[in-house]
Amino acid sequence: MIKTKLYKKGEQGIRADLQTCKPVNQDTCGFAVRQSAALKTSVSKPFRTSLPGGWKKMNDKNAGYEEKKNRYPDSADVAGGERGKAFHAALEREEALKMIINNSQVVVFLWKNEEKWPAEFVSENVVNFGYTVEDFISGRVLYGDIIYPEDLNKVGEELQKRILTGAPDFSIEYRIFSKAGKIRWVNERSFIERDQEGKVTHFQGVVLDITERKRSEEKLKKALEMQKVLTAVINNSPAVVFLWKNEKYWPATFVSDNIVQFGYTASDFISQGILYGKIIHPDDLKRVEGELERHIQKGEVSFNSEYRILTKAGDLRWVNEKTFIQRDGNGSVTCFQGIVLDITPRKKIEEALRKSLEMQKLLKTIVNKSSAVAFLWKNTENWPVEFVSENITQFGYSVEDFTSGKILYGDIIYKEDINSVFESLARAVREELDSFEMEYRILTGDRNVRWVEERTYIQRDNKNTVTHFQGIVVDVTERKEAREMLEIQRELSIALSSTWNLQAMLNLILDSCLKIREIDAGGIYLKDELLDQINLVAHRGLSSDFVEKIYAYRADSPEAKQVWTEKPVYKLSFFAEEMAGMLRKEKITAVAVIPMKHRGEVIGSLNFASHTVDRIPHNVRNFLESIALQVVNYIAPIRIEADFI
Questions:
Q1: What is the pTM (predicted TM-score) of this model?
Q2: Residue 304 predicted with pLDDT over 80
Q3: Helix or strand holding residue 489 (H, E)
Q4: Does residue 564 come out as left (phi exceeding 0), alpha (psi in the -120 to 50 range) or beta?
Q5: Closest by alpha carbon to 269, among 245, 285, 253, 288?
Q6: What domains, with CATH codes, occur in the chain?
């Protein structure tokens, strides 16, 4: 009789182990040995079996047979019908298991505990990595040879730790080379197989390709890093970012942490404890609502608005809001994305300019659409740009211009300012400051000069080495010009107060106005009551031929009406053909004619021109009109006194 034991060994399938063989018949014992070989079992030690002719020494390599391999035995082959059925069922389960494994992404290995882990068994789906079973079983390829060199020591060390602690299994992620030389990420989970003495003999493992997961994780990591950078840039800038629902008073679902500049916290809004509409000044709220509704009805996607808000302390602040209208697939408005910038300092300057007109004329608002441009610069020569927000277009550049390396940030800084910017930033780094602020000039894409204010956060690594600068650049050109104009007015007022010489006054007025960048020529006409004519009494930047032709006009002549007007003139088209022709010949491209009135009567005019710009900007017009109101109070008394002499 043959005594046979069937059992499952680890994850490697069914093994038929021959405990004893006693002489019953030759076929039965030979079949058991053949099945042991077919099931990848190992009868490594010789055993004795009794066959007709005497006991013979056998193992799984010399157990020969004549029958066709893998045939199912009949009732005569196996002693005991029930035992045979169980054996058939085990074979069927093994074949099903093989089919499942070989059609899955999980590759099964049995490795020896030897250098570089030679494989005794590998499932056929190892072809997923380009290899064949024979590559490993033959020893041509050792498993350690396909592990990425930088990961090999890590795998070996981690495995050794598990062995020394007596752990039953081992799990790790690492890289391998496919047969084509491509790098693949895998997850290995192995069982550590020990003999009766506790010595590790084999590792039974499954290897799963996780390359796509790793790629997704890397993309997510980069996205989160960029999100972190943008959040840091925003929170270190004056621009507060909001996301509002399209509901009454616009409840906020997001607000950046730098809302603290207005005294609030982000949670004040996100918790719905404070609604955004409630902090807008009551006198401005209806206008803001009306503007928003008009832009929605027009189907617009963004717009700008300026209004007042109340800080948590109850102070009034002017803000500029850039709003983006978000719609769903049906075109219905769902929410609003907003960037709120404190423009109170600018508003104060505008108010000062308005008051300088002595309330006699409303000053047009100096438009300053200086939305903040976000940058991330490397701490290397000329500050190459890793990130810049899309509104860089306001300076005539594209994002690609900077991120491609075609333009370095240092390239656009005005050459007279580059050294001071470099030295100030170097000093901030040297003194280990966390931030840096400075005003300087840059060149736009069309080579115009703009003043900007930069507010930068200095980023350091864990060794305190400066790696990057995260900054906000705001166009402050109009603000700078407004300050300069106020200073010119102040200095002119002081100078005029110190002289009673009419010609000196006229020269002071011309010289002061020509300090404005857009103006490079001008003249002043005064009326001569005795001769009933108007005379050019002072001029700058005009050719002698031109001056000779426009030097004097009779007060009632058509020519006089073109330089002696009741209201300011800023268009070349105002002039008759003869005068227009002289202006073209003089290469004048823009003009400003501002009457000087005293007690309701026009006593003179300020006439200015430009050879470089095609129109006089609005802020310059306001400045010139303010000058006219200012200087007439000095000129008129002296002119009247001269008339009496």
A1: 0.37
A2: yes
A3: helix 477-497
A4: beta
A5: 253
A6: 2-97 (no CATH), 106-209 (3.30.450.20), 238-356 (3.30.450.20), 373-475 (3.30.450.20), 481-644 (3.30.450.40)
